[in-house]
């Protein structure tokens, strides 16, 4: 008698690994707060928090190439076609994109940082421009490196992306713990590099690995045009979402005290954990939805979207109520040296 094993849908496997990865990442970000406050002090940690707000802005450095490539891979898989040329074309374009943004950051870092960190001029003195530029470089490596994870998700092996992402944050946390327990004196710039540079470097190493494998693959002008055409829409959407969702850091940098900035940062990281968990499901479903669209299975696609919107809304509302009721206890655990009023 044959025993049939329960087959778990691939998107649930990816979502499960993504949950674990996101929990680890959010855990690292929350756990790092108390160590960073001890190392840097409240005022410098407030500056550190404002600089980490650049991470989302730097996610646009790939011009939407990663998401556009992910869709092409899903479509090619649905049609059993090779997508190697698309990957190689996307990597060429991403290299041009990062060079462009590095030059852009170098030119405008002085002007932007003078405004963005104007409340901390006395603390930073003449280090503002270089600190801002270094932060942009570190976070841009993460933005470009995300292309590697989008490739893996499109190939329905997103658990590998989740593993690499979680590992990179753990390496950064280990570096921070080494600094803390060894009593090494570090500034804001080095703290950023220690905690976040491994996140970008690991994904960039995977990109280099994939490019070497595709070295002999031929690309044509049509591949580049196709990637750019598809990516432009995603790039515009990314910019609009960043403007809507990330202007808060521009406001708090000018209006809040260091203590208030720390409180705001902790609150956002708590909600970040909530959204990470739900985003994990959406991230895993993306390539599946793309394949359903290509196959024109609209009924199944619409049902999947509707169910996830409903469950996601209930989940976010429930978590918000819980955080509001227990905010003081949660805050005292994460940043015990800061009073939550």
Automatic annotation (TrEMBL):
The keyword Cell membrane applies. Its main location: membrane. It comes from the Bacteria. One of its GO terms (cellular component) is plasma membrane. It is found in: Cell membrane. This is Putative O-antigen transporter. The lineage of its organism: Bacteria, Pseudomonadati, Pseudomonadota, Gammaproteobacteria, Enterobacterales. PANTHER family: O-ANTIGEN TRANSPORTER-RELATED, PST FAMILY PREDICTED COLANIC ACID TRANSPORTER. The chain crosses the membrane at residues 12-39, 45-69, 90-112, 132-151, 163-181, 193-212, 233-252, 264-286, 307-326. The keyword Lyase does not apply. CDD domains: MATE_like. Keywords: Cell membrane, Membrane, Transmembrane, Transmembrane helix. It is a multi-pass membrane protein.
